[in-house]
Amino acid sequence: VPITTIEWSGDASKPREGHVRLIDQTRLPVELVHIECRDTETLWEAIKVLRVRGAPALGVAGAMGVVLGLRGTKAATGEELVKETDEVAAYFATSRPTAVNLFWALDRMKAKAREFAAKADGGFDTGFDTEEALRELLAEALEVLKEDRETCRAMGRHGAELLPDEATVLTHCNAGALATADYGTALGVIYAAVEAGKKITAYCDETRPLLQGARLSAWELTQAGVPTTVICDNMAAVVLRQGKIDAVIVGSDRIAANGDVANKIGTYGLSVLAKEHGVPFYVVAPVSTFDLTLDSGDKIPIEERPPDEVAMPFGVRTAPKEAEVYNPAFDVTPAANVTAIVTEKGVLRPPLAESIKEQLG
Amino acid sequence: VPITTIEWSGDASKPREGHVRLIDQTRLPVELVHIECRDTETLWEAIKVLRVRGAPALGVAGAMGVVLGLRGTKAATGEELVKETDEVAAYFATSRPTAVNLFWALDRMKAKAREFAAKADGGFDTGFDTEEALRELLAEALEVLKEDRETCRAMGRHGAELLPDEATVLTHCNAGALATADYGTALGVIYAAVEAGKKITAYCDETRPLLQGARLSAWELTQAGVPTTVICDNMAAVVLRQGKIDAVIVGSDRIAANGDVANKIGTYGLSVLAKEHGVPFYVVAPVSTFDLTLDSGDKIPIEERPPDEVAMPFGVRTAPKEAEVYNPAFDVTPAANVTAIVTEKGVLRPPLAESIKEQLG
Fold first, then answer.
1. Pairing of strands B340-343, B281-284
2. pTM of the model
3. Known catalytic residue: A253?
4. Which of A8, A166, B71, B92 is the most exposed place for a label (fewest CB within 10 A)?
5. Contact B12/A at CB under 8 A
6. ipTM > 0.90 for the complex
7. Dist CA B93 CA B27 (whole Å)
8. Arithmetic mean of pLDDT, A242-249
9. What is the C-alpha to C-alpha distance for residues B361 and A42, in angstroms, rounded to an integer?
10. How many CB atoms are closer than 10 A to CB A20?
11. Is the pLDDT of residue B160 over 70?
12. Residue A97: predicted pLDDT
């Protein structure tokens, strides 16, 4: 999969000179355009309007965003560094509320700043080395990126074993290379299965309102040579009933301790339809997606997005002004509808609450 | 409901001078534009590209279309009249394949031509009166229109009794005034309930790919003062799970003898979701929608429409060219998922095969 969704552009030893480079996913599939984020506002806006999206990619973006926000720092003490890091992290935390990976990555950067501060303040002869602090923070962000790459490939290998040698997979939204650094969670399973010699074809729900399935998943799957068919979300029930689908595979933005799964709006309905037709429903997500502080999915905050995403697609009015619009960006699939969750550590089977506790608790 | 979807414009006694006037539904909700169909090609194209759509409205359009096609007739015998009528009817029968009401209305006009021909040819002194033939055919088409109006109101009354005094109804596609002459099937139930003093609010699935729910149902419901919320199709599962919906009400394009229901793509999935959440699923359709020659829904022909309806909404490419598109316009909901079918004759309850046989057989 020759797609690099997000990367740090520049020398790892010179954080002040580097920046974040990412694919502007709002322009796909029409054109492949990159944007160079040289300040936090540009990256924050890119996250907000979904130029970069997908839970793992948001983790990478958040980690790199912290470095971006510190490029001009004059912090002369550990305390100042921690304060500035916290401020930048708090800023990025306001961009999107549901994907826990973003908060996980921001927390990780905050912890790194504290670690450095403690180390520096504990020294006698050494003054506070701001440049070294920046280098360590960038190294941490690059480590988040590297781990994401490795994690995706591990999930792919575990997930690929769940698929028969010839399989048709239905997916929703984009949990692919474009949702991670470069390989994908749900679609990583397809890529890994193909690499393992399996014959895989894909159906993509277009995924209204923002059409990530049609625009992004179908784009990257066809780029990777996987035969792909796009359908409207409301056609999924029909292809399931026709017996065309061997597995439904989706990603996740947050998973509660009991195995309830938050993911793109439409996922819950799809899980009901998969169950009705006896088709396995797999969720593929890295360990960083689990939020064990929540015992159930009821407590996952669900982002509501602007009505015009529904009522004004491509600037054309489709619903009358007099009508209300309800536009939740995510929904929660109860653990009971999930056949298995694939993480980088392996395959979690029901009862999910116990499997999660055992593997991650 | 101050909406006249389709009408015959002109003096009923001068068929050669009249024409078909209809709302161009492809322009809604942005603007209310009428088109005047003075030849069969204009009306055929209007049916094909869904300027006029909805099973009952297609019946009216087909009946009037036959008169339109005979405006220039020089038929001098009953035989010639029958031949020309059959030709015009055959032409309109090629416009859309799924809605049986269209074929039902065309057959009715063909039968009327035969009836007139038999009567005329049976007379001794009377020559063949072409003008009288045209007047009788137009009268028949206007009768189809009048019956549609009465039928919708009768369905509305029967259906309204199924709703509690305060109810929120979820509907899919448009089975409203715009799908009939002027009152609607599924939405007619809402209008009748409101007229009966009930407090009704509505959710409309936007209904991809052509967005009839957002564009048409939400438009006519808000015009009628019904509080309306538009959602994407993939959000229906969430509002059902939230307990917001008291009933799902849809129309139909064809109903088989066993109670299987063909309707807009997405209806089947919605029926599964309604069942999962214990919400009643009502189908509202006139008797002319039943096709008792088919024992099950498997035999209903399903129209597949052009891929660009999915991949190029509003002329903007949303899916890559390399991807296939599957675009069935309808699906079939098995009788087992249907709580009741409302016709102008009353409410049909399961077992539907028996109720249908009893009421219509």
1. parallel
2. 0.94
3. yes
4. A166
5. no
6. yes
7. 25
8. 98
9. 68
10. 27
11. yes
12. 86
Centre a 10 Å sphere on the Cβ of residue A309 and count the other Cβ atoms it contains: 16
A227 touches chain B (CB under 8 A): yes
Taking only residues 46 to 85 of chain A, the set having a beta carbon closer than 8 angstroms to any beta carbon of chain B reads none
Task: Please list every residue in chain B whose beta carbon sits closer than 8 Å to the beta carbon of residue A27.
Answer: none
Q: Report how far residue B44's alpha carbon sits from residue B34's, in angstroms, rounded to the nearest whole number.
A: 15
**In the prediction, which pLDDT does B275 show?**
98
Cα A204-A209-A212 angle, rounded to 5 deg: 40
Report, as an integer, the average pLDDT of A329-340. 98
Amino acid at site B136: E
What CA–CA distance (Å, rounded) separates B96 from A295?
52
| Residues 303-322 (A) with a CB less than 8 A from some CB of B | 310-311, 313-314, 316-320, 322
What does the alpha-carbon distance between residue A241 and residue A88 come to, in Å, rounded to a whole number? 49
Name the A residues in 133-152 with CB < 8 Å from any B CB.
none
CB within 8 Å: A320 and B222: yes
Residue A194 and residue A224 in contact, taking contact as beta carbons nearer than 8 Å: yes
Calculate ∠ Cα B80-B82-B84, nearest 5°: 70
Instruction: In whole angstroms, give the CA distance from residue B332 to residue A187.
Output: 31
- At A64, list the tokens: 């790199």
| Chain B residue closest in CA terms to A25 | B318
What would the two tokens of residue A256 be?
């509660």
- The helix (run of H) or strand (run of E) holding residue A152 is helix A130-160
Preceding peptide of B209 cis, ω within 30°:
yes
Closest CA to B229 of B241, B247, B213: B213
* A238–B322 CB contact, under 8 Å: no
Provide, as residue numbers in chain A, all residues whose Cβ is less than 8 Å from the Cβ of B235.
265-266, 326-328, 331
pLDDT above 90 for B150: yes
- For B301-340, write each residue's pLDDT tens digit: 999 999 999 999 999 999 999 999 999 999 999 999 999 9
Higher-pLDDT residue of A141, B119: A141
Which residues of A130-260 form beta strands (DSSP E)? Answer: 166-171, 199-205, 228-231, 247-250, 254-256
Report residue A356 as tokens: 């999660």
For residue B164, how many other CB atoms are within 10 A of its CB? 12
pLDDT at A61: 98
Of B218, B234, B317, the CB nearest to A323: B218
Give residue A122's pLDDT band: very low, low, confident or very high (50, 70, 90).
Answer: low
pLDDT at residue B97, as a whole number: 86
Helices and strands: H and E segment counts in chain B: 12, 15
Residue A361 has a pLDDT of 80
Interface of B with A in 237-296 (CB under 8 A): 237-239, 241, 265-266, 268-270, 272-273, 276
Per the CB < 8 Å rule, is B319 touching A230? yes
Q: In whole angstroms, what is the distance from residue B236 CA to residue A236 CA?
A: 14
Contact B243, B233 (CB under 8 A): no
Buried b (16+ CB within 10 A) or exposed e, A215-248: bbbbbbbbbbebebbbbbbbbbbbbbbeeebbbb
Phi, psi of B242, rounded to the nearest 5 degrees:
-75, -5
Report the pLDDT value the prediction gives residue A125, as an integer from 0 to 100.
54
For chain A, what's the residue count? 361
Q: What would the DSSP string read from start to end of A18-39?
A: -EEEEE-GGGTTT---EEEE-S
B97 or B125, higher pLDDT = B97
Residues of chain B contacting residue A218, judged by C-beta atoms under 8 Å apart: 319-320, 322-323
B267 to chain A, minimum CA–CA distance in Å? Answer: 8
Chain A environment of B222 (Cβ under 8 Å): 320, 322-323
* Spatial distance between the Cα atoms of A282 and A251, rounded to a whole number of angstroms: 8
Residue A126 has pLDDT above 70, yes or no: no
